[in-house]
Specification:
Strand order of the largest sheet: 6-7-8-3-9-10
Radius of gyration: 18 Å
Bound molecules: adenosine-5'-triphosphate
CATH class: Alpha Beta
Shape: globular
CATH superfamily: P-loop containing nucleotide triphosphate hydrolases
Number of helices: 9
Structural class: alpha/beta
Number of strands: 10
Length: 248
């Protein structure tokens, strides 16, 4: 049986006066490719931030790789690509190589020396996302989809065991979205990286993922993708409003 690497038990959260997450419990196992679905404002980004230790829950328990979140010391095992990673304009003064290399700081510490094989590590990370020929380019000259791949390479260079992505395809055109998700599948299958993805692209991801979680303040469903396929559209609408529409 696969190892449980992320576990949330009865987690609740509120921003000042707004209750955002209510009694959330779920587990993610090593090798899962989990899509978190939910309407705008349903708490998806908040849930990820709690998972990453950026926000503290009001109640509940979180375990990462079997350790309580508070004492977990291997943050570099969890790579994060945020919603707004692909928002650099053409004047931003950094090359693709520099952006990817900056991801090593998470692993070696901000003020320590870069490893001797840093250039090779940059090359490998760019290769994994199909961007090796863009190494010397300015990050701001790339399309949104290409920038997003570079930020995944930046996360990969720290050798994460889990990759957490918050709506990574916003602003990417349909054709590039397909190949973007194919790239995530190969990271998941070939490098055994567990993937947690917040997305609205239900139809595009549905044949690529292993698990689905439907979130709207609380987890209404979490299970295998095949079980998700059995849920009626009527039930989904009840949980999600009209944000999740399955294509058959
Ligand atoms: N820093 C904050 N202070 C107060 N309220 C916040 C803050 N961040 C988010 N919220 C509120 O918390 C709720 C959940 O927000 P969150 O960003 O987690 O939702 P989401 O599901 O990721 O939404 P979207 O799909 O639109 O990105 C929303 O009602 C939002 O307005």
């Amino acid at each position: 049986m696969s190892k449980t690497i992320i576990e949330m038990k009865n987690v609740s959260f509120q921003y000042e006066y707004t209750q955002v997450l209510n009694n959330i419990s779920f587990k993610v196992n090593e090798g899962d490719f989990l899509a978190i679905l939910g309407p705008n404002g349903s708490g998806k980004s908040t849930l990820l931030k709690i998972l990453l230790g950026l926000l503290k829950p009001l109640a509940g328990e979180i375990k990462l790789f079997g350790q309580p979140n508070d004492t977990f010391r291997h943050r570099e095992w969890i790579g994060y690509v945020s919603q707004k990673s692909n928002a650099f304009n053409s004047g931003f003064p950094a090359t693709v190589e520099e952006v990817v290399k900056s991801g090593l700081a998470k692993k070696v510490g901000l003020f320590k020396r870069m490893p001797n094989d840093a250039a090779k590590q940059v090359q490998d990370a760019l290769k994994a996302v199909g961007m090796e020929s863009f190494r010397g380019k300015n990050i701001g000259e790339l399309s949104g989809g290409q920038q997003q791949r570079v930020f995944i390479a930046r996360a990969l260079i720290a050798k994460p065991k889990v990759l957490v992505l918050d709506e990574p395809t916003v602003g990417i055109d349909h054709e590039n979205v397909q190949s973007f998700y194919d790239m995530l599948v190969s990271l998941n299958k070939e490098q055994n990286i567990t993937i947690i993805l917040v997305t609205h692209d239900v139809d595009t991801v549905s044949n690529r993922i292993s698990h689905v979680a439907c979130l709207n303040q609380t987890i209404h469903f979490h299970g295998y993708k095949q079980e998700f396929d059995e849920i009626s559209q009527e039930q989904l609408d009840k949980w999600q409003g009209h944000a999740v529409r399955k294509i058959h």
